[in-house]
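ZP: hey, is the fe (ii) ion complex queued? I don't see it on the tracker
AM: it wasn't, my bad. submitting now with these inputs:
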Amino acid sequence: MTSLSNEHLRTLVQPDRVHRDFYIDPDVFDLEMDRIFGKIWLFVGHTSQVPNPGDYITTTVARQPVIMSRHRDGEVHVMFNRCTHRGAQVCLEQFGNTKRFECPYHAWVFHTDGRFAGAPYPKGYEDGFLKKEKLDLVKLPRTEIYRGFVFSSLSTDGPEVDEFLGPMKDHIDAFCDRAPDGEVEACAGMFRYRYAGNWKLQMENQTDVYHIMFTHVSTTDDDGKQFRREGAEEDEAGKVKVLADNQSLSEQWEELPLGGHRHGHVFMGRFAMDKANQGPVYDRYKAAMEESYGDQAEENMTVRTHNSIFYPHWSIQHLTQHIRVMNPISVDCTENVIIPLKLKGAPEEMWQASLRSNNNSHSPSGMVMSDDMEVWVRCHEGLKTQSTDWVVLARGMDEKYSGDNQGSYDSKGTSESGARNQQLAWVDLMCGES
Ligand code: FES
Ligand SMILES: [Fe+2]
């Protein structure tokens, strides 16, 4: 284990800047896996990914292979994907349905709730050994489910999931309450891909309004072309033109509400440019919502946040309707899992439209995601150079926060307040103060 001192870790995060080692030092990464990912609540999956008895998915929690399964009594279990005989992963399929898990090595068998069910040639063991030994698949120390969202922690200590999520539970509620049936459903599989960069580059990017009109010029600007690689142009007077001088659009971005809470959770409000819904499909949705929620329907249908970013590694994208999970693989490699979510009880056409939107924006070749991945990789490569050591995050430093910026706060526009809030949580966790 690394010998990085708390004093050293604290110097990496300054009020308006962070040291490049924050992103690129493998020792920092190892410590993050222990002190952040090894301690707090992580997103595992959604119960609708395993709707029937015997259904399972395999995934990772803080790089540990796990199985999430639904047993025949309907309970959902999260257990390490590690045979209790000699350690083989018992299941490698990404999802499926099974009566029991059978290890491929010596065919030990486990029930879908993890209980040991038997081993071949039991006579080879001393009398009673297979009964008295603890041979069940090992469950993760803590697992909790909130409205179908499954969380696990690798630690037996720490705040309960309710306290950890805090006001961010309202964001999960708001998402589920947009469904006439009050539930969301992950029934379209997922995108899963990797980029060659640190996990925090993406976490910070999701609360970064400043980049949208430049990185995504092909999506936000009719004249844009995907990823400009040429130098900025000059005007007739020879002055360098800065992109996105579209005044009305810039003003909209600057007014976008931002906010955050304790434990590093942050969110972005809704873009004013989002088009109002209308038409026969929307009318059917509205009727279904009114039937379910009565006077509350309109309130529930109103999307107030663009995204909700739950520290340290997942988010809800409310408009495109997906969960995004960022699984750190190594200091310079991150796995992205994009899980589209259906609003149960809403018209099928709405679901198909949201799937098309996810394909266009957040599939590996989607217009938005490919722009972002390009810049994260460029950041990671750039930070390895022996240039200046510091990454500047000084936008919006004149905003006033209550206390130490670890309570709830409001901010807006292109402020870098979201990244700073995440970094403060990082210091607390890394130095054992959260
Ligand atoms: S390692 Fe699984 S049965 Fe031997
Ligand atoms: Fe982006």
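AM: back. Residues 42-149 form a domain with the Rieske Iron-sulfur Protein fold (CATH 2.102.10.10).
ZP: great, adding it to the tracker
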